[in-house]
Amino acid sequence: MVKYGLDYTRCRWILPLLLGIGVIFGIIALAGRGWLESQTLPYVQRASLWQNCRRPDQGGEWSCESLMNYAWGRAAAATYLVGFLLLVICFALAIIAFAIDTLRFNFIRGIGGLLFVAAVFSIMGLVIYPVKFSSEIDMTGINMFSWAYGFGWTTAIMEICLGFFFCCLPNYEDQILGNVKPTYFYSSP
Q1: CA-to-CA distance for 103 and 108, rounded, in angstroms?
Q2: Which helix (H) or strand (E) holds 38?
Q3: How many Å apart are CA 43 and CA 119, to the nearest integer?
Q4: Residue 148: phi, psi to the nearest 5?
Q5: From start to end of 102-151, where are the E strands?
Q6: By the 8 A CB rule, do 35 and 52 touch?
Q7: Residue 33's pLDDT is what?
Q8: Is the Cβ–Cβ distance between 169 and 111 less than 8 Å?
């Protein structure tokens, strides 16, 4: 990407595309019911960010309770949701930044800083949830934090990595814009 510059049409949209993938993963984590699941038969418990469901036996009905009745449930949901909203804002700002013909590198660095703030909020929600869930809610059987919780962590890791990339990209402004003379390592005899 640095070799051809950000004006190279295929490389220009890689960062907004990766942010878009992070937004999709965040939506999956917010809507997914697989934050916590029973690991072995009979499957008696499953939880999302919003509710905890139990089943007394294999063929019984699931009974669900809202995690919003707990202060920690509201805190986990709120902090993860704030991190997700900041990620969506960064995605919109990245589309605007890369759609402009002349890149504003300070604007790009600001997106990177905002991504770090989003990562902090997401990680706070992802840490509050398992710590308080396992200490305040009775769990029967063997349980595991599952696929939707993993999508939440993937979103947080993408926010951190893309934050570094957005912050470091302006350091290579001359190379990206093609303002550097090529260096030749050939010497004449």
Answers
A1: 8
A2: strand 36-38
A3: 33
A4: -70, -35
A5: 143-145
A6: no
A7: 85
A8: no
Residue 174 CB neighbours (<10 A): 10
Name beta bridge partners: 144: 37
Task: Please answer whether residues 159 and 115 qualify as being in contact, where contact means their C-beta atoms are separated by less than 8 angstroms.
Answer: yes
The pTM score is 0.83
Q: pLDDT tens digits for 87-138?
A: 999 999 988 887 776 666 678 888 999 999 999 999 999 999 989 888 888 7
Tens-digit pLDDT profile for residues 129-181: 989 888 888 777 778 888 899 999 999 999 999 999 888 877 666 555 556 67
Helix then strand count (H, E) for the chain reads 6, 5
What kind of fold does domain 10-170 have according to CATH?
A: Butyryl-CoA Dehydrogenase, subunit A; domain 3 (1.20.140)
Cα separation, 162 vs 156, whole angstroms:
10
Residues 6+ apart with CB under 8 A from 171: none
Rounded CA separation 75/78 (Å): 5
Q: Where are the domains of the chain?
A: 10-170
